[in-house]
Amino acid sequence: MPLSFLPLFLCWGVFVDVSDASSDWCYTGCAHTPSHWSSISGSSCGGDRQSPIDIVTSRAVTDSSLHNFTLVNFSSSHVFKSLTNTGHTVKCILEENEVEVTGGGLNATYSTIQFHFHWGDADHHPGSEHTVDGHRYPMEMHIVSLKKGLSVEQATVDPEGIAVLGFFINATDDGETSQTWDDFTSYLMNITTKGSVVDVSHNISIADLIGDVDLTKFYRYMGSLTTPNCNEAVVWTVFQEPIKVPKNLMERFPEQTELFHVYRPTQHLNGRHVFASPAIPPAPSHAWCYDDHCDYSPEHWHLLPESHCDGERQSPINIKKDDAMEDKLLDDFTYTKFDDKHTMKYIINTGHTVKCVLKDGMVEVSGGGLGYVYSTLQFHFHWGSGSDDSVGSEHTVDSKRYPMEMHIVNMRKDLTLEQAKEAPNGLAVLGFFIEPADGHKSGGGGSEHHEESSTSHTDPWKTFTSYLSAIKNISSQVEVTEDISIDDLIGDVDRSMYYRYNGSLTTPSCNEAVVWTVFKEPIKVDKDLMKMFPHRAGYHNVYRPTQSLHSRKVYTTAASSAPGPMMLILLLACFCVFAI
Ligand SMILES: *[C@@H]1O[C@H](CO)[C@@H](O)[C@H](O)[C@H]1NC(C)=O
Ligand SMILES: *[C@@H]1O[C@H](CO)[C@@H](O)[C@H](O)[C@H]1NC(C)=O
Ligand SMILES: *[C@@H]1O[C@H](CO)[C@@H](O)[C@H](O)[C@H]1NC(C)=O
Ligand SMILES: *[C@@H]1O[C@H](CO)[C@@H](O)[C@H](O)[C@H]1NC(C)=O
Ligand SMILES: *[C@@H]1O[C@H](CO)[C@@H](O)[C@H](O)[C@H]1NC(C)=O
Ligand SMILES: *[C@@H]1O[C@H](CO)[C@@H](O)[C@H](O)[C@H]1NC(C)=O
Ligand SMILES: *[C@@H]1O[C@H](CO)[C@@H](O)[C@H](O)[C@H]1NC(C)=O
Ligand SMILES: *[C@@H]1O[C@H](CO)[C@@H](O)[C@H](O)[C@H]1NC(C)=O
Ligand SMILES: [Zn+2]
Ligand SMILES: [Zn+2]
């Protein structure tokens, strides 16, 4: 090569690197490994709708429009054209315009053009691209289809131009064989080098390869091609059940092709949702929480199945004293067995709160403008960080948040729980703020004072909180054996003064079934006893942010519950006039 050509050659090299780099990428051992694909010119690999992803099953939202696929000629044994080693994968090219995919919640008909594979290595290092709850399967097969009538170029710029069906591949139980997969993988010995091609003469169909995978169970999300240029044009379908292939046949992929670890790492969801077809049973427990260390933080609660959390009568709220309208119908409550010292059954650490479940059918509440008799089911607590001045009530009053809040949950006696959750007044919750008892500013040497100044308030709370050390583990519970009543815990709070509004449960599913009563006067509890809730339960800040009032009104009991003398005279006067 003449020396003068050298600069040109180098230049050309750089040029290729920048503009035609889609052929100059790899999974390992070159400049453009997956973490550098985004710097490939013209690529979308750094975009925010990338594939593959980790499918978090508990977070998948069931979508009833994801019904059955219609797969045309998937059972035809005459559609496989050839098998190619592309240098990145093994690809099976199909006869044109024979195989089609529709249904499955797709908006169009898609023509299937090829399928290919992703794998790890023969040393049992798995190589699927998608993962499920962090689990990577040994292999993954991708069946690629273009929106009917579009060219590859057109499809890659259409946000739903390409439909890929993804199938996980798992090992069969030992001893099981598969003639289909044996036949199919026997072609790999003919394509050991990059660019080699072999015609497929066996009569194998796509359906033969898929086997008995349940095609009604799948996940759906909008993503991208998983190789450069990572075009964000793919409607992804990932089937839940894996195809079963004997291990020794799977090993032929890395062994024959000498391609290893041919899968892209999972990409961020960036706020995308993964949907599940209705045939996938909902995950047993959907992880919601109050912070962002779980799948569903409060701003995502509305995505949970059956959730009402984005409705217009949500709780808690900020109560503005001046906007609360007096309502004379808000009279005193009638409490049944609130003073009974043997109504508490057990106390449980739910992982979200500490809840005291009451014995069935004993405790009731009525009056207070409720209009129905309600059965009292349980009470529980909301709290803050547990530091000295922490606050953690759910409701706020003129934006003031109290240290804690106690909720006594009641259900209309004439309804079942299921009915009550659907009725606008099926549930009644009595909310009590909790604040530190006076003279218990802890810090300084005041601790000796606790015994001395402990009044009737302190003892029941001491009794109640003494159970907390037995339920440090989430889901653990402890039977209540000591004598303690709900009245003991509420103490001498003036229960004739309260706010009233229509709201919801403050935890998922946030059913808008609650008539709320928020008492104005807080319960006083020793600060050190309050701290035991976060410290024993092991979690903090268990309260939902306040919700928008929308068009609702907050009512309040009249300023003075007994009519003043002037009022009496007026009433009397009215009565007289009426009588005459
Ligand atoms: C979907 O397929 C399943 C199993 O093949 C079948 O039982 C069901 O009836 C189908 N549903 C619809 C809506 O076609
Ligand atoms: C299915 O395949 C047959 C031939 O194998 C072909 O005649 C037919 O057109 C195909 N169906 C569709 C919808 O393409
Ligand atoms: C179907 O079309 C709707 C409306 O354009 C779009 O929001 C949705 O993402 C599309 N779904 C699929 C699977 O392409
Ligand atoms: C995959 O195969 C292994 C070994 O046969 C088995 O233990 C595992 O349960 C399978 N996983 C799934 C999800 O089918
Ligand atoms: C594949 O390779 C084997 C072994 O080299 C050879 O016998 C066979 O003819 C080849 N098949 C095709 C279709 O090329
Ligand atoms: C494939 O099918 C064709 C016609 O259906 C038949 O002639 C041929 O023998 C079959 N090939 C094999 C390998 O079974
Ligand atoms: C909490 O769980 C651990 C282990 O899971 C157990 O050893 C311990 O006894 C449990 N504690 C309580 C109070 O249940
Ligand atoms: C609650 O809603 C009902 C109608 O659904 C209404 O009659 C009632 O006055 C409301 N109560 C409050 C306190 O807003
Ligand atoms: Zn692929
Ligand atoms: Zn609550």
Structure characteristics:
580 residues; alpha+beta; Carbonic Anhydrase II; 2 domains; 13-stranded mixed sheet; disordered C terminus; binds 2-acetamido-2-deoxy-beta-D-glucopyranose; binds zinc ion; lyase; transmembrane helix; transmembrane
How would you describe this protein?
It is built from twelve helices and 32 strands. With 580 residues, the chain is an alpha+beta fold. Helices cover 16% and strands 26% of the residues. It is elongated and about 90 Å long. The protein has two domains: 6-276, Alpha carbonic anhydrase (Carbonic Anhydrase II, Roll), CATH 3.10.200; 298-556, Roll (Carbonic Anhydrase II). One 2-acetamido-2-deoxy-beta-D-glucopyranose binds at residues 72-73, 76, 78, 97-98, 100.
